[in-house]
Specification:
Blueprint: E1 11-17, H1 25-35, E2 40-46, H2 50-60, E3 64-67, E4 81-82, H3 84-89, E5 94-98, E6 101-105, H4 108-117, E7 126-130, H5 134-145, E8 149-154, H6 157-167, E9 171-173, E10 182-187, E11 210-215, H7 224-231, E12 235-237, H8 240-255, H9 261-280
Parallel strand pairs: 1-2, 1-3, 4-6, 7-8, 7-10, 8-9, 10-11, 11-12
Antiparallel strand pairs: 3-5, 5-6
This protein binds 2'-monophosphoadenosine-5'-diphosphate.
């Protein structure tokens, strides 16, 4: 949107996070508003004080917000209601403000399920999930809901064991990963994310025991984990589709309209390719 198109009726949407400057959400949501001819704009908000931010959302009548690191859990105590799925996951990535009420949702799990379903049916398949944070919770919820069999692997046993009880699936500490195999390995840890692109969460040899390796990281597009997976014959999938699909579900929850998903994906791929060329220079 050009600033000259902003007028007294422009609706405001945005993302709350810290940091937030590398988020691709403004790119995809503004593109969708433009394509659908909507008088709306989506802005990044760098937030220190989440409670204060919620007052601001009410006062300014902001229609919808994406929620990212580190507020996905903390925000729960400041909003009016939370849907059953977000409650079961224990994290919110989307809020909607209507008729004086702020409702929290989670679309991350839908993003990951849709993205996996494009390469592998989930039902009765075995997934090894690395990590036990908020992202892992959304992944585990989605896999269980679709009838998959996840195994949790985490560096800190206490956290992994807690998720193992909550989502009723086995847990193994990270140093036992050599004993595991499955249809798909999913990395939900931040290991390998820009700028630490020379790191991988697991030794390369482990990857030959998986047909598919999904890294929910999308920057860089090909993490060290995915490069090593390809070397060992596994199909490597990055987190771009998961990101775009969770965003598309947010857009639908706010506007009731279908966003241009393929165009959003292409815009993200283009932007990330430009970034990676710049960072190589
Ligand atoms: P998010 O909410 O984005 O999932 P998080 O709650 O900070 O982020 O969780 C990150 C996960 O990545 C954690 O499970 C963390 O392992 P610990 O439970 O042991 O802290 C995992 N993680 C982060 N850095 C890691 C590393 N260098 N090696 C292995 N696991 C790591």
């Amino acid at each position: 949107m050009f600033t000259s198109e902003i007028d007294a009726k422009t609706q405001i949407y945005g993302i709350i996070g810290n940091p937030v400057e590398h988020s691709m959400s403004p790119l995809i949501h503004n593109l969708a508003f433009r394509r659908l001819g909507m008088n709306a704009v989506y802005l990044p908000f760098l937030v220190q004080d989440i409670k204060g931010a919620i007052y601001g959302i009410r006062a300014f009548q902001i229609r919808g917000m994406s929620i990212t690191i580190p507020f996905k859990t903390e925000i729960i105590k400041y909003i009016d209601e939370i849907d059953d799925t977000a409650r079961a996951i224990g994290a919110i990535n989307t809020i909607r403000f209507t008729e004086d009420r702020i409702t929290g949702f989670n679309t991350d799990w839908l993003g990951v399920v849709r993205s996996i379903q494009e390469f592998l049916p989930i039902k009765d398949r075995k997934f090894v999930v690395l990590g036990a944070g908020g992202a892992a919770r959304a992944v585990l919820f989605g896999l269980k809901k679709e009838g998959g069999n996840p195994i949790i692997v985490n560096r800190t046993p206490a956290k992994g064991e807690m998720l193992s009880r909550e989502f009723e699936c086995p847990f193994f500490p990270l140093n036992q990963i050599d004993d595991l195999q499955g249809d798909c390995l999913i990395n939900t840890t931040p290991v390998g994310m820009f700028p630490d692109i020379d790191k991988s969460p697991v030794p390369g040899k482990v990857l030959s025991r998986f047909g598919f390796v999904l890294d929910i990281i999308y920057n860089p597009l090909k993490t060290k984990l995915l490069k090593e997976a390809e070397k060992r014959g596994a199909v490597a999938i990055n987190g771009v589709k998961m990101f775009v699909y969770q965003g598309a579900e947010q857009f639908k929850a706010w506007t009731g309209k279908e966003p241009p998903v393929k165009e959003m994906e292409n815009a993200v791929l283009k932007q990330l390719s430009i970034r990676s060329i710049k960072s190589e220079k």
